[in-house]
Write a structure and sequence with these properties.
443 residues; Aminopeptidase; 14-stranded mixed β-sheet; two-stranded antiparallel sheet; globular; disordered N terminus
Length: 443
Amino acid sequence: MSSLGITQSSAELASMSHSQLSKPSIRSRLSNEPAAPRGAPSLSSSEIPTSPPVPASAIALEILDDVGAAAVTLADLAATADRTAFQDFAWMAAWQRHIGGRRGAAPKIVVGRAPDGTILFALPLAVDRHGAVRRLTWLASDFCDYNGPLLHAQFTHRFAADGFPALWQRILSALARSGHPFDCVDLAKMPERVAGQPNPLLTLPTSPNPSGAYLTYLRTDWETLYTQKRSSATRKKERKQLKSLAALGDVRFVDVQDAAERMRALELLFEQKSRALARMGAKDIFAAPAHRAFYADVVGGAATRHLVHVSRLDVGAETAAVNVGLMHGGRYYLILSSYGDGEAAKFGPGRALLHELLQYAIAQRFAVFDFTIGDEPYKLDWSDERLVLHDHLAAVTLRGHAAVAVGTHLRRLKRAIKQTPLVWRHFTRTRAFAASVFSRRAR
């Protein structure tokens, strides 16, 4: 799960571990230029410009303060750009309506044009106050597992990457004059690549995010993938559990299309997830009405219907597990999963739904199944690649210097805890124990 709340795998899935840390198939990307994922766009030799790259000084900058207006201005770029699913303007607009606007976040969408007028990139930023500190951050950052730019398909060929730090200084100066001053810059959870292109923001000073992200490449059929990723003993155990589920009633994977049914599934996910988070002693991000309203908007709204996939696993008359995922650019993103605590919970309904989702993604010809941010052990069972995400923190004012110093220390500590398996297991068990004690006392 994202530590800030967008991805939360079930406790059941998080508990799955089968010597994952020793698996040779997972590859941690530590360089700034990992191989592009399967299905990433490429340019033919006839499409690659032969003219010299545009220098940073020649880029014309524009700052858009309204997400809706930006969606119109940048519609062509958004349709063809290299980006992640989270940089969909409908997703960001929903966040601004229900969360950002209520707490005074000011969108600052930076547009960069070449001298011929071509839009080469857009940076969906915002000035957002956290306590007394005003931060320049990504728009909807806390609700995006990946943050980053929208890049023209030829950005890498038309702009020299080593010129981005100089361009960034021009961007900061323009933003400082835009009417919303900020104390620090906090750009979190940035991948090293944006689709097939190097992320230009990684030319700024960065540090690793506390959490990684995980990908599985869907290069084969389900049975072959299942055999490759799970041992014979594990497959036997999981099939036995599936038979136990079937003994309780018909097991059905439902691709939820009806609008009312999608909302009912989401409400059930809220309930299941809130109970699971309480058992874990973790913060319930669904307790805030604004957060629920945001998810209801993106799940039920027409503007995000192309983006959001809702599914559930029914066992007899019971909905045993629910999932909300995103779909973009040949990639299926797993972002919200839950399972109930009824009779079916003993037999791995969350795992069964994950298997169905992998089969669905293969059938729909997705190239990548993205488990997104979070280092839950079960992801290692399936992953072909671990993504290192990066944060850029920089102070602007004296108050910002203090915030950056504290933030840097806390993130280093958090990363050390999360990336040390023994310490992380002890922390999560202690947290869950404390939650159980508190729950008993509250009765």
